[in-house]
Design brief:
Structural class: alpha/beta
CATH topology of the largest domain: Alpha/beta knot
Oligomer: single chain
Low-confidence stretches: none
Largest sheet: 7 strands, parallel
Strand content: 15-25%
Mean pLDDT: 93
Order of helices and strands: EHEHEHEHEHEHEHEHEEHEHEH
Distance between the termini: 43 Å
Shape: elongated
Amino acid sequence: MARLIEVDDPHDERLADYVALRDVELRTSLEAEHGFFVAEGEKVVRRAVAAGYSVRSFLMARRWLAGLRDELERAAEAPCYVVDEAVAQQVTGFHVHRGALAAIHRPPPRGVEEVIAGAGRIVVLEDIVDSTNVGAIFRSAAALGVDAVLLSPRCADPLYRRSIKVAMGAVFEVPWTRLPTWYDALPALADTGFTTVALTPAPDAVPLDELVGRLAGAKLCLVVGSEGAGLSGRWLASADLRAAIPMANGVDSLNVAAAAAIAFYATR
């Protein structure tokens, strides 16, 4: 059973894992240095534990203890810091309306070969820096049967609190890892048998529905790029094919998470 510890001082050093959860730069360095991430809300905490992640500590308002009692009982000696909601807000920087937070040990990085082993359809993200978009792509990947997600070195952290929340815990279900290098990532994936398809509104791109018919049965690697500029020239040039989502009414592009979801559905 987790150890219940009442804390009434928002500056108590034992709450350091939960300080300023909206400060992306601070959280990125703090969580990387200490090897953990923060899950928010009962459902997300449950999904992390169910996926085999181990809890470092809990931060909870008293009224949420009953809802996570079974997880608290399974958490061995992990401390559960019990605070009132005003203290939680002072520590985290926002109103924790879901009531439960958990600091969870971050797993060691996985190799690309391990993550894509046996996969028939994967997605690669290039420099997607918005954690909401990363989370949304993971949620769509899980819902639409994508086997793995690979991220370029500069992508946002899938285990950042906001990414996890938007993904509804799908980051715990879909295998993923970061690519060790950016420059030759797509040719390296092509060498493993994947057909790499860059999603782009470029005029020379093949309509996605036409491409789907041509690639039936192929191992498919869908490639999506950053929120502003889209895919880099290097990755566009090194992809096997370019595909576009046909659009009407003069709209020339979609949000990257929306475009990825359409491509996942079209190629399922």
